[in-house]
Amino acid sequence: MKAMKLPKELQSFLEAAETSKEETLVFTEKKRPVAALVSLRRVDRESLALSTNPEFLKIIEAARREILAGKTTSLEVLERKFGVAAPNKRMERTRKTRRSS
Questions:
Q1: How many structural domains does the chain have?
Q2: Which spans in 20-86 are helix H?
């Protein structure tokens, strides 16, 4: 990842990106997207690095193809296979117990 100081000429684009209700400001040429400006005020470095990593993007795309092909396993099946309950279910029971006390 390369970083550089934002030139003053582009400051208005940064302001537009930060004040727009959309998260991404897309630049087009002949109605086709060619670049994007994204505010990183609430993005951590790890998320940014993953979102631009070609290998990670290949993994995500492969997972999406598997989902579309119906190659999924439910949480219930995994819980039965490994003989454990999901942590969230345990927490729900604890919360319910505390609330009813």
A1: 1
A2: 45-51, 54-68, 75-82
Longest dimension (CA), the chain: 64
Joined tokens for residue 14 = 């940064």
Tens-digit pLDDT profile for residues 13-63: 777 777 776 677 888 999 999 988 777 777 888 988 898 899 999 999 999
> Is the pTM of the predicted complex or chain greater than 0.90?
no
Task: Yes or no: say if 36 and 25 are a contact pair by the CB < 8 Å rule.
Answer: yes
Residue 35 and residue 17 in contact, taking contact as beta carbons nearer than 8 Å? no
Give the position of tokens 């296979």. Answer: 81
Residue type, 65: R
- Residue 2 forms part of a structural domain: no
The CA distance from 84 to 101, in Å, is 26
Residue 68 maps to a domain: no
**CA 40 to CA 19: how far, in whole Å?**
13
Burial class of residue 50 (count of CB atoms within 10 Å of its CB; 0-12, 13-18, 19+): middle
